[in-house]
Specification:
- With 343 residues, the protein is of the alpha/beta class.
- The protein has two domains: 168 residues, Rossmann fold; 168 residues, Glycogen Phosphorylase B (Rossmann fold, 3-Layer(aba) Sandwich).
- The strands form two sheets. The protein has a seven-stranded parallel sheet with strand order 3-2-1-4-5-6-7, with helices on both faces. Strands 10-9-8-11-12-13 form a six-stranded parallel sheet, sandwiched between helices.
- Helix 1 packs across helix 13 and helix 8 crosses helix 12.
- The termini are close together.
Amino acid sequence: MRVLQVDSGREWRGGQNQVRVLCRELAREPGVEQRLVTKRGSELARVATTQGTAVTETPWGWGLDPRAWLRLNLTVLDFKPDIVHAHDGHALFLARHAAGDARLVATRRVDFHVRRFSSWRRVDRIIAVSRAVQDILAADGIPATEITVVPDGIDATEVRGAATQELDVRKRLGLPAGAPVAVNVAALVDHKDQRTLIRAAAHARPARPDLHWAIAGEGGLRGSLTAEITRLGLADRVHLLGYVDAIDALIREGNVLVMSSKEEGLGSVILNALALGKPVVATAAGGIREILPADALVRVGDAAALARKVVEALDHPASFPLPPQCTARAMAEGVLAVYRSLV
């Protein structure tokens, strides 16, 4: 079986890491030959090449870059894949017009509604990373027979090894060695809702004036979030770290991982925290409800409840097990089963 993986690779986020993990796991499967098409010079291209994946790099300056479409067409003609697997919306749009006779698979990682004439309605199978994503797709009229749920997966041993990197976030921020730190790892975009996280920091300050909040990620809302931090007088307590390469080390050094999303396909960074035995507090958004128990969750947008849960996690830390369906092996086996059902 020949599989062509396609990801626009414009940023390095959880989705791109899942592509890397999938390629690594499928490389261990006898009879599976694969190639990855992604943006030239991207972090995904670099790490996938390092792990031994065959990578075809292409100029991909914007979502529907015709240069990427041309390269994808040439790769399909040369590689002759049985399956073309697109991992984001831009990759899917181009793949749909280049797949030829190959069966087209697309992974849906977000619990957003799909438009009436979207490319998501023109695939052989959609892999939804959670039941929450599946429900949104079904509500939008996509037949259940065209959707398969395969949760994201991680290699817990790999995560624990990466967490040993030296970071020392407290030293970087000029904090005392024992200062409690709540960590958020997410792009600074609307659906991650760090505004609620910042308001939670204000609510928590009377109970835990020593608590610091470290937000790792970049995005278009950085300016408005900085303004909100200033408005609430939290510049000495809420820290925007920007892009952090050593995410697992940051999670390990933190006391609790906090996710404040309004919408979330699954929240794969939560899996890393579970593998590291760290307490997690999150909003009950999308697929997060499928990987965390109810007592770790609060209502979306409820900053006061989020603050209370974080303080409780600091005072009485408790970790939760990594769900067995969220291992790298389970994820790859689920995806491979989809491929085999189509070929």
